[in-house]
Write a structure and sequence with these properties.
Layout: E1 2-5, E2 12-16, E3 24-33, E4 40-45, E5 48-53, E6 58-68, E7 74-79, E8 86-94
Antiparallel strand pairs: 1-8, 2-7, 3-6, 3-8, 4-5, 4-7
Amino acid sequence: MVSGTADANGDLTLTWRPSSSRQARATQVTAEMDDAGSATAKVRLNGALITPILPTGGAAGGEPYIWVGPGDELTVTWAGAPAGGLGRMVVIYDYGTEQ
């Protein structure tokens, strides 16, 4: 799990990287922020949008899986959240059959 707090503008980016030199297969990404208000949240890979996600406890999962290499960054970004809001990101992954 990765966690952090939203800044004064209500923005927060949490980043996950594989802990191995192998490519990881992310099968689910979960975003959670208690009392996110009217915030929006997005899952991104290296800055490219994968999918919008519910900011208060949404999950993105299933095929097609997200392949994350050693130099890649999988992020959840919140915008418009309450300042100081605690965000959490959970990535469920395995090393599956490499792409």
